[in-house]
Amino acid sequence: MILTLTRPIACWQKEYETGHAFIDEQHQSLFEIVNTLHEAVINREEVDTLQRLMDGFARHTVDHFQQEEALMLMVHYPDYARHKQTHDLLLSKMNSLLQKLRAQHVEMTVDITQFISEWLTHHIKGEDRKMTQFLQQIQELPISCN
């Protein structure tokens, strides 16, 4: 098989930085996985390879969401329920897609990697930025001795 060099579909940009180093690092890892998956789709890799890559993306996403959610609970983030709902919605879509891929009822396409890339950038610039702004605000609050 001839490998086609593709442009990344998910390009990390400074505007995606949340100011929280650990979260930004995880987001960058998600971008790398999406790009690897996208390249595999473009190169028409075997179904098993695409499933393995999608499984890896799903596992990494679940781990990332769990860590974000634990952080939000720890600091009593007021928009936790709404933020978690956006996570749950994506996970539900990913689980459905994974089941269809395993049953070979759907083909992995660039539309899927495009959706994932757009979802990530929208979520990071919206929900995650709000969350990290809250984290920065509570770190700046004076500690009460009462």
TrEMBL record:
- Enumerate the spans annotated as Hemerythrin-like domain: 19-132
PANTHER family the record matches: BACTERIOHEMERYTHRIN (PTHR37164)
Gene3D superfamilies attached to this UniProt entry: Hemerythrin-like (1.20.120.50)
Superkingdom classification of source: Bacteria
Gene source species: Pseudanabaena mucicola FACHB-723
SUPFAM superfamilies assigned = Hemerythrin-like
InterPro entries per UniProt: Haemerythrin_Fe_BS (IPR016131), Hemerythrin (IPR050669), Hemerythrin-like (IPR012312), Hemerythrin-like_sf (IPR035938), Hemerythrin_metal-bd (IPR012827)
Describe the family membership recorded for this protein in Swiss-Prot or TrEMBL.
Belongs to the hemerythrin family.
Entry keywords, A to Z: Iron, Metal-binding
Family annotation (Pfam families): Hemerythrin (PF01814)
Protein's recorded name: Hemerythrin family protein
